[in-house]
Amino acid sequence: MKDQKEIVRELNQKKIMEAAEFVFAQYGFKGATTDKISKQAELPKANIHYYYKTKENLYREVLESILNEWMDAAKAFDDFDEPRAALTKYVESKMSYSRTRPLASKVWANEIIHGAPVVGTFLETTLKQWLEDRIKVIRGWIESGKINPVDPRAFIYLIWSVTQHYADFERQIEILNQGEKFTDEEFEQKTQQVVQFVLASVGL
Fold first, then answer.
1. d(Cα 48, Cα 163) in Å, to the nearest integer?
2. Are residues 85 and 181 in the same domain?
3. Which residues fall within 8 angstroms of residue 102, CB to CB, at 6 or more apart?
4. Rounded distance, CA 139 to CA 47, Å?
5. Residue 152's pLDDT is what?
6. Long-range contacts at 188-192 (CB < 8 A, ≥ 24 apart)
7. Quick check: 1 pLDDT over 80?
8. Is the CB of residue 90 less than 8 Å from the CB of residue 71?
9. What angle do CA 76, 69, 169 make, to 5 degrees?
10. 74 phi and psi, to 5 degrees?
11. What is the mean pLDDT of residues 100-109?
12. What is the mean pLDDT of residues 138-164?
């Protein structure tokens, strides 16, 4: 059973991480400050440095949390043998992530746009290996005749670009939707449309 001190620590870290995600998305790494993060979290600035020491450490933690959630979404490739089920689950997970954590996607996009100074090593190792493993799965589906021939790498990039568009261009989508955010029902409709688009692109 957790003691009171541990509960307080977890609550504070959750507040700080959420605030940091917001501030990094709004201002980028260079424009973000621990002062802005502490005000957003409604916690003393000393708390930020107590838990994360530096802005760089906190930024890295935010990026790692984003990566971990994206990797979890990709487990669909391992959990389902049939491409229809695997791709449906993967796209739905990615769309849900764009719906619930759009700021996280913006933080990631800013990092990549600026040359991936923090996650560059991860891209060259962990993510590259993850991509190669999924390419093997897709090639296996192609060779067994389960899906139409497609460039696996381009296919995955396609899924990323479509699903993350709903987070990275959230404001543009809202403006083009008569200034209104999608309701949960409307977003679910968009999700299923993306699923059908992805499946149809490989003959499913």
1. 32
2. yes
3. 166, 167, 168, 170
4. 49
5. 95
6. 190/95, 190/166, 191/91, 191/92, 191/95, 191/96
7. no
8. no
9. 100
10. -75, -5
11. 89
12. 95
What is the rounded (10 degree) CA torsion for 95, 98, 99, 100? 120
**CA 5, 42, 98, 156: dihedral to nearest 10 degrees?**
-70
The burial of 51, by beta-carbon neighbours within 10 Å (0-12 exposed, 13-18 middle, 19 or more buried), is given as: middle
| 190, 95 contact by CB (below 8 A) | yes
- Neighbouring C-alpha atoms within 13 Å toward the C-beta of 95: 21
pLDDT for position 138: 94
Same domain, 49 and 80: no
Listed residue (187, 167, 146) closest to 25, CA to CA: 167
Is the separation of the CB atoms in 116 and 123 below 8 Å? yes
From residue 162, give the alpha-carbon distance in Å to each of 104, 155, 167: 16, 11, 10
Rounded Cα distance between 136 and 154, Å, is 13
What's the mean pLDDT in 36-45?
88
What was the pLDDT predicted at 2?
67
Domain with 194, as residue range(s), is 63-200
Specify the number of domains making up the chain: 2
- Give the tokens for residue 159: 């899924």
CA 101, 189, 92: angle at the middle one, nearest 5? 50
Question: Is 58 domain-assigned?
Answer: no
